[in-house]
């Protein structure tokens, strides 16, 4: 089952890569517009034997319009393919997690490799739910699948470890409660940073900036919709993250005799909580510009990355369960 899990992860990465390429095709052809107006008609004389007459003769669309129509159709097809391949990747991704859990005879969250696999799956599943409700946001899939390819490839190359039993310190019912909620919230935050970054680019483009990288945002959905999606995802994830931190403190009290000890991971979890709380407060404050608030959300995700990768690689503490050197 462990070998099957690794094989499914490899296939999932390939599927995400195919989806990313398909999204890129849609994005590249995104300026095309189908010809929707009826063909123009012009009056053509049809006199015979000196008598005059007229007939309305349809004029074929111009070659440029025909090319744009075909490009638009190809873009839509590429986008639909990308969405379905992303769904396939999510199925493979889930299969890899299930196989890993069966092999380990526990929930697949016991080390850094398994944590990354689960967080990225949650992000993909949440993206598919958003896409189901709001198909107009499909072009964001290019950036989402790029993130998935990078994170899963990094996990396979640098974080992968053999299946081992759960460490004694983690053998508690709080393991499921605390880690499941922190994984779920982290996956939503992972998805949330995608429209946040897209909003910052699109907002700059709508403000008249045409330098790199703002020019990349010319085919993204409108800035207002991206900003609302960013807020909705963070507002949904933050209470879950708050509960996860509280559950971790309760577990620490039961396991180590203290609820909080400023362990590196505890410290960075608190920093992340403060930053995300600051984002939600700034978003609710009318005097704070939306781009300023969104930058705080991006900063929050950077602190999450620090908590996930930086703490495990550069610090040693009671939460050193990464399984990597």
Number of helices: 8
Shape: globular
Helix content: 55-70%
Estimated radius of gyration: 25 Å
Which whole number gives the mean pLDDT? 85
What is the strand tally? 2
Tell me the span between the first and last alpha carbons: 25 Å
Backbone structural class: mainly alpha
Spatial sequence of strands, sheet with the most strands: 1-2
Uncertain segments are: 32-53
Q: Can you summarize the main beta sheet?
A: 2 strands, antiparallel
Order of helices and strands: HEEHHHHHHH
As for the number of domains, it is 2
Which percent range describes the beta-strand content? under 5%
Strands, helices and their partners?
Blueprint: H1 2-28, E1 41-45, E2 54-58, H2 63-104, H3 112-133, H4 141-159, H5 173-206, H6 223-256, H7 264-283, H8 290-314
Helix pairs in contact: 1-2, 1-4, 2-3, 3-4, 3-5, 5-6, 5-8, 6-7, 7-8
Outline the structure in words.
Helix content is 69%, strand content 3%. The protein is mainly α. The chain has two domains: 1-34 and 64-163, no CATH class; 167-325, no CATH class. The chain has a two-stranded antiparallel sheet with strand order 1-2. The relative contact order is 0.11.
Defining traits:
325 residues; mainly alpha; two-stranded antiparallel sheet; 2 strands
Task: Kindly summarize this structure in a few lines.
The chain has 325 residues and is mainly α. It contains eight helices and two strands, in the order αββααααααα. It has two domains: 134 residues, no CATH class; 159 residues, no CATH class.
């Amino acid at each position: 089952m462990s070998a099957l899990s690794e094989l499914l992860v490899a296939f999932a990465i390939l599927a995400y890569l195919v989806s990313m390429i398909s999204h890129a095709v849609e994005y590249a052809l995104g300026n095309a517009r189908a010809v929707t107006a009826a063909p123009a008609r012009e009056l053509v004389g049809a006199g015979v034997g000196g008598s005059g007459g007229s007939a309305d003769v349809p004029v074929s669309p111009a070659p440029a319009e025909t090319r744009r129509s075909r490009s638009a159709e190809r873009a839509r097809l590429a986008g639909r393919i990308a969405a379905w391949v992303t769904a396939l990747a999510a199925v493979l991704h889930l299969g890899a997690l299930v196989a890993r859990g069966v092999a380990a005879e526990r929930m697949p969250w016991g080390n850094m490799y398994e944590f990354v696999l689960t967080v990225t799956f949650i992000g993909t599943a949440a993206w598919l739910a958003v896409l189901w409700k709001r198909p107009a946001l499909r072009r964001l899939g290019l950036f989402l699948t790029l993130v998935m390819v990078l994170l899963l490839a990094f996990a396979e190359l640098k974080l992968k470890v053999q299946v081992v039993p759960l460490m004694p310190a983690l053998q508690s019912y709080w393991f499921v409660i605390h880690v499941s909620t922190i994984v779920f919230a982290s996956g939503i935050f992972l998805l949330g940073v995608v429209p946040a970054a897209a909003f910052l680019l699109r907002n700059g483009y709508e403000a008249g900036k045409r330098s790199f990288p703002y020019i990349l945002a010319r085919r993204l959905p409108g800035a207002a919709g991206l900003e609302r999606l960013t807020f909705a995802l963070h507002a949904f994830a933050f209470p879950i993250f708050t509960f996860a931190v509280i559950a971790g403190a309760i577990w620490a009290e039961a396991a180590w005799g203290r609820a909080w000890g400023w362990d590196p991971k505890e410290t960075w979890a608190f920093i992340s909580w403060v930053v995300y709380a600051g984002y939600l407060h700034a978003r609710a404050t009318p005097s704070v510009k939306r781009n300023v608030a969104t930058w705080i959300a991006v900063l929050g995700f950077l602190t999450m990355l620090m908590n996930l990768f930086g703490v495990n690689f550069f610090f040693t503490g009671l939460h050193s369960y990464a399984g990597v050197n």
